[in-house]
Design brief:
By secondary structure, the chain is an alpha+beta fold. The chain contains twelve helices and 14 strands.
């Protein structure tokens, strides 16, 4: 009896590492010390000495049950972007710059080519976020997970000068809300998606005219990473007073998280075109509008609160990084409520 007979293939693990090295190299920053394969990822923090009061920010998350979609479609090269996005967007939401990322893949069986493909997506997400992929772990769980299944999660660390932290404490009535477009469902609410649509090849290969693509193509679209967009806004001299990453819980749960006491927000739901995938979801699942806005991003992945005088500069900065932005509402007096009109 040996480890391989028990279901854990060490040689496959070695092969996975070799296959993923080419992807990891593309994410390197000058601060990374050493190479892939050490016991810990090393990152030189000398540059943060230039900050007055450096504050470390961290975030950890996974892709939820969106991985089920990747299984059925046998498409594993973008799910890693989702894992990175869910972590680095939270860091950027606080005004920080993501520095490095680590991934964790739990699988029923280590198929080196599949693992390397997953990591290629992680590396692409890190490249988009300008964060280094400094390490990770692939764990085989024979007998605990089906051979073809896996779960993917990650952890990111970033930094911000304390004076640049986005806290929301200075938000006041009259401030403008800017919504930054999402790329679709992102990585939240897939348990409900899987109740509405069958997760079968036939269902996911179905072409919908209103989507302009198959259902699977629309749903697996990776989460937008907003790091460069928010950095561009900051570099344009705009003070972002508050920032909300619209993830699970939609508008109703996430937007109040950036609000101080004494204010609410009024959002014009007709200020932008809600993507077709959300309309299809609501129709096929008979989901109420309130529940849709309480579960999904509805086409807006990030909401910023800014001074009205900064609207044009903010939208121009976001468009310079390929983001689409809209004026979607305003801050009003209230008790941290979201009012849709």
């Amino acid at each position: 009896m040996d480890y391989k007979n028990s279901g854990v293939d060490i040689e496959a693990g070695y092969k996975s590492v070799e296959l993923m090295k080419e992807h990891v190299k593309k994410t390197m920053r000058p601060e990374v010390l050493g190479g892939l394969g050490g016991f810990a990822g090393a990152f030189d923090l000398s540059k943060i000495k230039e900050m007055d009061e450096p504050v470390l920010l961290s975030g950890t998350d996974g892709c939820g049950t969106k991985v089920k979609l990747a299984f059925v479609m046998d498409k594993h090269d973008t799910i890693g972007i989702d894992a990175v996005a869910m972590c680095v967007n939270d860091i950027a939401c606080s005004g920080g710059e993501p520095l490095f990322f680590l991934d964790y893949i739990a699988c029923g069986k280590n198929y080196p080519e599949k693992i390397a493909t997953i990591v290629s997506g992680v590396a692409e997400g890190c490249r988009q976020a300008e964060a280094a992929l400094v390490g990770g772990e692939t764990a085989e769980h024979p007998g605990l997970m089906p051979e073809n299944d896996y779960d993917l999660a990650g952890f990111a660390v970033g930094v911000v000068d304390k004076k640049d932290l986005i806290t929301g404490q200075n938000i006041k009535p009259g401030d403008t809300l800017i919504g930054i477009a999402s790329t679709g469902v992102h990585s939240n609410g897939f348990s409900l998606v899987r109740k509405v649509f069958e997760m079968t090849e036939e269902s996911l290969d179905t072409y919908y005219d209103e989507l302009g693509k198959t259902l699977g193509e629309a749903l697996i679209e990776p989460t937008r990473i907003y790091v460069k967009g928010l950095k561009a806004v900051k570099n344009a001299g705009v003070t972002i007073k508050g920032c909300s990453h619209i993830t699970g819980g939609g508008f109703y749960e996430n937007i109040p998280r950036m609000l101080p006491d004494g204010v609410s927000v009024k959002i014009n739901k007709h200020s932008y075109e809600v993507p077709a995938i959300f309309k299809l979801l609501a129709q096929k699942g008979d989901i109420s509008e309130q529940m849709m806005y309480n579960t999904y991003n509805m086409g807006i992945g990030m909401v910023l609160a800014i001074d009205p005088a900064d609207v044009d500069a903010t939208i121009a900065a976001l468009e310079s990084t390929g983001d689409k932005a809209y004026v979607i509402g305003e801050v009003i007096e209230g008790n941290k409520e979201v009012v849709l009109v």
